[in-house]
Amino acid sequence: MDKSVYNFCAGPAMLPVDVMAQAQREFVNFAGLGVSVMELSHRGKEYMAVAAEAEKDLRELMQVPDNYKVLFMHGGGRGQFAAVPMNLLGGANLKADYLLSGNWSQAALAEAKKYGDIQAVEGVIKGDDGSFSLVAAPQFRADAAYVHYCPNETIEGVEMFDLPQTGGVPLVADMSSTILSRPVDVSQFGIIYAGAQKNIGPSGLSVVLVRDDLLGKARPDTPGIFDYQVTADNDSMFNTPPTYSWYLAGLVFKWIKAQGGLQAMEARNLEKASFLYDYIDASDFYSNKVAKNCRSRMNVPFQLKDAALDAAFLAESKEAGLLALKGHRIVGGMRASLYNAMPLEGVKALVAFMERFAKQHA
């Protein structure tokens, strides 16, 4: 791929070049209809075919069991922070446990507290030096309606590869930064949700996989637009869905299938992350403070040995065509997001720049 600019943004993240090229070709004339896909009625047969094919491809990629609904919804990941408790805490059991591993699980907890008896369970140990490691065996209430966790925290760069052991309590996962990066066993989850802007497509869309037995439990005051049962009954078209984002998501699903599916994505992502982490670990100029057993493959935070050089690093990396490397304000330093669309060549370009910068400022 001939590319001189690489976008390391944590989201909205880069899209596959082939997907953007196809979308560009079809932008004003979709399928020979003479109109854009954005102009098609979401209830017309042409767009219904687009929507149905996207769902079919996602089901195939993730091997979604038949007893799960696949929903395409509004509001991104934050919308689901509210939708999950509204849909699962509508009966007598108002208890839910939230495993805290970083900023996004904390945000989900804060939203859920509006709707029930929500317990925080610490999942990460933060050292005085800013390091992160996992709690070995977090404990959950046996009578909770569900347990929520975020397997990948984009800000801290912490990823959980083992499932929390909930003793049969339904497990809900915010997979916004994990989905489609590696295979997961969907049958181990009650609900998987994901904002689209990492590995799926443009921001605003969210994808929800929900097990059938968890439908129909919503609080009476749940807005119809966030009610999983209503959404499922209307094939995700209770109102006009984000049609262009859904269409682009479908193109991304096909692109992933063409790359070899989720096993191939995992191998590529592991290679990219290992290449960058190995360089950082061998350097005395850069450092990463996350324990090796929970380092994110998608989001790699790193620090320079002298924070006074951060501004120069960001300015010079931008000039080199390496974009959006500034770390989140909570943890500082730098962050490189390596979602599916980031090629290995982009990571190699980043490491080559880091080497040059370190030599110049040693």
From TrEMBL:
Catalysed reaction, written as an equation: O-phospho-L-serine + 2-oxoglutarate = 3-phosphooxypyruvate + L-glutamate; 4-(phosphooxy)-L-threonine + 2-oxoglutarate = (R)-3-hydroxy-2-oxo-4-phosphooxybutanoate + L-glutamate
Pathway(s) the chain acts in: Cofactor biosynthesis; pyridoxine 5'-phosphate biosynthesis; pyridoxine 5'-phosphate from D-erythrose 4-phosphate: step 3/5; Amino-acid biosynthesis; L-serine biosynthesis; L-serine from 3-phospho-D-glycerate: step 2/3
Aminotransferase class V domain mapped to chain residues: 5-350
Compartments, as annotated in UniProt: Cytoplasm
EC number(s) on file: 2.6.1.52
Cofactor note: Binds 1 pyridoxal phosphate per subunit.
PROSITE patterns, alphabetized: AA_TRANSFER_CLASS_5
Its biological purpose: Catalyzes the reversible conversion of 3-phosphohydroxypyruvate to phosphoserine and of 3-hydroxy-2-oxo-4-phosphonooxybutanoate to phosphohydroxythreonine.
HAMAP family: SerC_aminotrans_5
Subunit structure: Homodimer.
PANTHER family: PHOSPHOSERINE AMINOTRANSFERASE
Family from the record: Belongs to the class-V pyridoxal-phosphate-dependent aminotransferase family. SerC subfamily.
The name this protein goes by in its record: Phosphoserine aminotransferase
